[in-house]
Amino acid sequence: MIPYKTIVKLDKNLPAPVYIQLCNQLISLIKQGTLQPASKIPGSRLMADTLNIHRKTVIAAYDELIAQGWLETAPAKGTFVNTALPIVKKQRIKVPKNQLKKTKAAFHFKERPHLYRPDISTTAAGIITIDDGVPDNRIAPIEEISRVYRNIIKKSYNRKLLAYGSIYGNRELRETLTDYLNESRGLNISAENILITRGSQMGIYLASKLLLTDGKNIIIGKSNYRSANKTFAEAGGKLNRVSVDKNGLVTEEIEALCQQMPIHAVYVTSHHHHPTTVTLSAQRRMHLLELSQRYHFAIIEDDYDYDFHYNNAPILPLASGDSEGNVIYIGALCKIVAPAIRIGYLVAPQDFVDEAARYRRVVDRQGDALLELVMARMIKSGDIQRHSKKALKIYKTRRDLFCTLLKEKLDKYFEFEVPEGGMAVWVKLRKNISWDLVREEAIKHDLSLADYCWDSDEQETSKLGMRMGFASSTEDEIQEMIVRLEKTMTNLW
């Protein structure tokens, strides 16, 4: 006889009702072959006594299993496992489902080692993290978002937004962004040139899948945004690197590569280069545009932090000077509002936008139409612009404090340039030691350093730098951050 009292574990403290727990565990016994088709199940009174539960609970479980087709009853005979079920080879009795940990698949699938990166986890209490440059979600305009969201959702006619919508994104947001981008960035576009995405990363992915299949060539910097590199590799592109100096991508090297092979795309973070934070100079912008027209390649312009330029007005993007349709301009509201507000945009010639929208249909179907409308209304009302100015002021203060302390306390260990914009400082070690050692020592002082911003096929890590973000930390947090970083470097030097 099956030892139900031993193998069936019921917990009245779990959210699931006890009768459902009993159902699920009996189903597991059937699937494992422990209970074969036509096997008799103990009567409700006996099962209740065995498991020390109410008989009505057992009856409810049996009724549910009969309704689902797992059990059947025979008048005057009892309850049995449905004879129509397939016979399963008997397996060893397994532990209850809530104790299982499925770590290995029993089927084959394609693994992608080039995409591996540790997932973001919650930092332990007492640990200070120097990230690689992200906005402070604590200053997000929550009240404004909530107010606009409530005003939209309480109107019954907006329930249509809960249905399937356009694969291009909310029409009002596309039209609002058209005016916003034309006015703020000097673009000359219509709503038909805009595809709403879930952040910049989706825009990079869509562009890559349309441009780089079958080993097509893309040019990137020798130091470059790592997530973009992984995306290009995943799309099947061949990565060709050029130097990056204080003026950004060296366009003379791009020209030389164009003379050697067919180039299909160039990726550039014009404001500001990731990871080194330098701005692509006006001269090189003009040269890059001229090369794209001469050699007919696409420029993927990732303008992820255009709004955060501190010393003077930002240089207009390459897209503003694109007269031939060579630039794919990618941006997002995530950096302005908060990382979890996954609203971005891809701006390109209409035929490319149409094709990207078709591809997006099979990836994500559509975005969050309600949230997209909220962002549209907040841009129209000026809420986004006001918050952007507020955040710019806060981040500039934090940049100045971080760089001042870095210079005063850690100049003997690090070299860096004060960034004109963005949310991070590109820091290099003055001594030829490994950043791995720095990270290992830092954690001893409850300081966690961001993951590296280079690729394994680049130079030795000791010769490169690390992005140290300042935007997400308050002034007090920055003060403590520098104290712990100084202790770390003192012990290593």
Question: Can you put this structure into words, describing what you see?
Answer:
With 493 residues, the chain is an alpha/beta fold. The chain has 3 domains: 4-99, Winged helix-like DNA-binding domain superfamily/Winged helix DNA-binding domain (Arc Repressor Mutant, subunit A); 128-138 and 387-492, Aspartate Aminotransferase, domain 1, CATH 3.90.1150.10; 140-382, Aspartate Aminotransferase, domain 2 (3-Layer(aba) Sandwich). Helix content is 40%, strand content 14%. The chain is built from 15 helices and 17 strands. The protein has helices spanning 4-7, 18-32, 44-51, 55-68, 142-153, 171-185, 200-211, 226-234, 251-260, 282-295, 350-363, 369-381, 383-410, 435-444, 475-492; strands spanning 40-41, 71-74, 78-81, 128-130, 194-197, 217-221, 238-242, 244-245, 248-249, 265-268, 298-302, 327-332, 344-347, 414-416, 424-429, 447-449, 465-469. The strands form 5 sheets. It has a 7-stranded mixed sheet, sandwiched between helices. It has a 3-stranded antiparallel sheet with strand order 1-3-2. The protein is globular and about 90 Å long. It starts with a helix and ends with a helix.
Main sheet record: 7 strands, mixed
Order of strands, widest sheet: 5-13-12-11-10-6-7
**Count of discrete structural domains:** 3
Query: Within the CATH hierarchy, at the fold level, what is the topology of the largest domain?
Result: Aspartate Aminotransferase, domain 2
Identify the CATH architecture of the largest domain: 3-Layer(aba) Sandwich
Strand content: 5-15%
Give average pLDDT, whole number. 90
Helix content: 25-40%
Could you state the CATH homologous superfamily of the largest domain? Type I PLP-dependent aspartate aminotransferase-like (Major domain)
Shape annotation: globular
Give the quaternary arrangement of the chains: single chain
* CA radius of gyration: 29 Å
Uncertain segments: 455-462
Give the C-level CATH assignment of the largest domain.
Answer: Alpha Beta
Distance between the termini: 70 Å
Number of strands: 17
Figure out the total of helices: 15
Counting helices, strands and paired strands, the structural category is: alpha/beta
